[in-house]
Task: structure prediction
Amino acid sequence: MPTAQTLRFLIGPIELLHEQAGPRLLRLTRLGIFLLWIVKLLLDPLWRLADLPREMLQPTGVLILLPPSVLDQLLSPDGLTTLLFGTLAVLALGLTDRAFPLISTLAALLLTVYSSVIRSFGPAVHTDIVVLLAVWVLAGFAWADHWQAKSTHKRKPAGSWSSYPLITIVALLCLSYCLVGFNRIATSGTRIFTGDTMEVFAIDASLRGYYFTTNIGWHVPEWPLIVLMLKLGFPVITVFEIVAPLCLAWPHFRWVFIPFMLSFHLLSLVFMNIFFFDDMLVYLLLFDWSRRYPQLRATHPGKT
Amino acid sequence: MTKAARVPPWFPPLSLTAIALLIWLVSFKSSPIVSVLHLSDSPLVPFSVSSQAFLLFMLVRAFFYWPPMVRWAKSMPMPHRVIFALMISSIIAGHFTLDSRTYFPLVAWEIFPGIHEQNPVTCREFVGTTESGKKVRLVVEQLFPSVVQINPLDGFTPDATDHLAETLAKAYNQLHADDHVRQVDLVLMAVNLHPNAGETRAQPSCQLLKRYDFSSGQ
Result:
C-alpha cells in the first residue's frame, strides 16, 4: 500500500547511533573534545577574576570543599594563572593519547575545578557542562578499557568498545535536553507557554547583556510577529527537548532535530545573547559517521 | 513451534496504575500519608519532582526494552557497564538534588523553568562616561570574559554594588588607556511589555539610581 510504504520511507530505519563506531572515530572524538577545551582556555583571561569583588563569590562544586586559605590562594592572580596553564598542559598531553586513562582523569579533575571557579561569581550556568561530562566519560571508559584488556590479557582494547563512550556522550547530551524539558513542564505546566514569559526572558536577557550583546531582544515587544514566533516556538522547543533521546535511535528524526535546535540556539544568540556553542559542536556526534565512512567502523574491509 | 511469551503481571496498565497511585500518595495533600504523618501543608515529595521521576522512569524503561540497546548493553564488559550506569545515574541524581551549585557538574537542569510576567521588565546596569564624553555599557561578562553570567544586580548589597562599579571602571580603563571612564552611573533600565501601537525607541528607558565619580584618576 502506498501509504504504508510512504510511512515506512519517512520513518526510516531505527538503529542505535554509533553502534558500529571504531577506534578511529573514538580517537577523533577525543581529539575534538580536548581541542575544544584548549581553544576555550586559550581565549580565557582567567587571572582577571582575581580583581572581582569577593562579595560576588559563591563557591561552587568542588570549591566548597576547599579551606578558605586554599580558596584564597587559588583565586589569586598566580593561582588562577597556574590553574589555567596547568590545565592547558594536561589537555595538550591528552592529545597525544599516551597514558590516556591517567591524563584524561587529571584533565577532567582540572576542568571541573576550572568550571567551578568561573561559576563561583554568578549562577551555575549550564553552558559546557555536557562537554565537561564528556571528558569524564572518555576518562571513565579509558580506565574500563585498560582494566578489561588487562583482565583478558589483550594487548589493546577491542575495537567494538569504541562505541561505548560515544553513545554515552550522546545519551548525556540528549538526557540533559530531556531533563530541561521535563523540568519546565513539571514546574510550570502549560501556563508558562500561554502568558508573556518568553517575552520577559528575551527582554531580560537582552537588557542584561552577556559576552555577546546584540541589543535586539529588548525590542521584541515592538514586533508582534516576533512575539508570536517566540510564543509559538517555546512549546515546540520544549517538545523537541523532551524527545531528544530519540536521536539515539532514529536517524530521520536527527535530520529534523539538528537543524531545528541549531536554529533555536542561533535565535537565542540573536534575541537573548545566549550562545551554547560548545553543545553545538557536540552535535557533530549526532551524525553516525561510522555508517557513512567504513574506515571509522570497528571492523572495516581490510581489517582482520 | 515456540511458546508465546507470557506477559508478566506487572506490565502496563497495572504498573502504570501502581505508579500513579504512588505519586498520589506522596505528592498530593489529599493523600492519607499527609494526615498520618501530620504533615502541615506540603506533601512528602513535590509533584514537580515525582512527575519528573515518573517520566524518566518511562524513558529509561523504553530504552531498556529496545532490542538494539539491550544487545549493545549485553555486549559490554562489566567495567564498561559500571561506567555507563555511573554516568547516566549521576546526571539523573544531580538533577534530583534540585541544586545547581553544590554538586556541580551534577546539576539540576533548570533552564527557564518558571513563569515570569512582570511588566515593565527592569534591569540594573552600569553605564560609564569616558573622558571624551562617550557612553559605554560596563558589562561584567565582557570585561571579565571568564564569567559566563553574573547574578542580577538587584540582588547585590550596596557595598558589593559600589565595589563592582569601581572594579568595572578599572577593568575598562586597563583596556582603554587612551579614553578612561571618569564616571559610572548605576541605572535602572525598563522595557514595557505592551508598548503603544507604533511606539519604538532607540534605547530602553533609564532611571539614574547612583552616580560614581572616578575622575580623580583611581
Observations:
- The longest helix of chain A spans residues 163-188.
- Residues 177 and 241 of chain A are 5 Å apart (CA to CA).
- Chain A touches chain B through 87 residues (CB under 8 Å).
- Chain A has a mean pLDDT of 91.
